[in-house]
UniProtKB/TrEMBL annotation:
Its main location: membrane. Keywords: Cell membrane, Membrane, Transmembrane, Transmembrane helix. The chain crosses the membrane at residues 6-26, 33-54, 66-84, 91-112, 118-139, 151-170, 176-194. InterPro entries: Gly_transporter. The lineage of its organism: Bacteria, Bacillati, Actinomycetota, Actinomycetes, Mycobacteriales. The keyword Ubl conjugation does not apply. It is a multi-pass membrane protein. This is Trimeric intracellular cation channel family protein. It is found in: Cell membrane. The keyword Cell membrane applies. It comes from the Bacteria. Residues 8-81, 94-167 form the Glycine transporter domain.
Length: 246
């Protein structure tokens, strides 16, 4: 499977979208072009490298230099078009969701192709999808989307991985099913972000007082969508008022 040009193309698309999210995040945080390239590499290649190391094979990102092309293209795109891009937060989340959909499906399929049990393949599919973004956010001093507590992130990836395992086991895995599953995960993630769907929270009496306000002040790019402005000035003013009243 891994020698298929179609699989390579889809995998490179996932690398590009994740690398684009890393470069956009760098631009949003006023990190220079070199730092943006590093964040793009971490986001685009990190999950796949973790997966392949756990599989005991040479990572595709190291075996095939073509995997360095999408992060370079992402740097150029953000550098040339960054000044005309608006609603950066939405674009970062959308690129991250696109990479999530592509990586959770093809990460699972690659694990199954290497003879992994279904449960292990599901785990590796999710690791492929969230690993790079986790590394990107930690290095950029951002609350990782996995831990933001604001919306669903791992669940869409796990859903895509499970459906991929079903498709492979029923012999319907192919270009059409792969595309459909990737789009489904993308849509699931974006709707969850826009509507702020959440998993059950811990017992509320255990949490820190004013935790919701403090989370808003942390200004995670993966937090709730902005109301009017992407720089969050209005939300900051609201948070100050909230803390002042308490």
């Amino acid at each position: 499977m891994e020698t298929s040009p179609l699989v390579l193309w889809f995998d490179l698309m996932g690398v590009f979208f994740f690398a684009l999210s890393g470069n956009l995040l760098a631009a949003r945080k006023d990190i220079d072009i070199t730092g943006g390239f590093i964040l793009g590499l971490l986001a685009g290649l990190g999950g796949g490298i973790i997966r392949d190391v756990m599989l005991g094979v040479t990572p595709l990102a190291l075996a095939k230099p073509v995997y360095l092309v999408p992060p370079l293209v992402a740097v150029v795109v953000v550098y040339l078009l960054g000044s005309v891009i608006h609603r950066v937060q939405t674009l970062i989340v959308a690129c991250d969701a696109a990479g999530l959909g592509l990586f959770c499906t093809f990460g699972t399929a690659r694990a199954l192709d290497h003879g992994m049990p279904v449960a292990s393949a599901l785990l590796l599919g999710v690791v492929t999808a969230v690993g790079g973004g986790l590394m990107r956010d930690v290095v950029a001093n951002e609350i990782p989307a996995v831990f933001s507590g604001s919306n669903l992130y791992v669940i869409p990836a796990a859903t895509g991985a499970a459906l991929t395992a079903v498709a492979v086991s029923t012999d319907v895995w192919g270009p059409v099913s792969a595309t459909v599953l990737s789009v489904l995960v993308f849509a699931f993630r974006m709707v969850a972000w826009a509507r702020q769907w959440r998993v059950p929270a811990p017992v509320r009496t255990w949490t820190v007082r004013d935790l919701d306000v403090l989370r808003r002040r942390e200004r995670s790019v993966f937090g709730r969508p902005r109301g009017e402005r992407d720089d969050g000035l209005r939300d900051d003013e609201y948070d100050d008022d909230e803390l002042g009243r308490r």
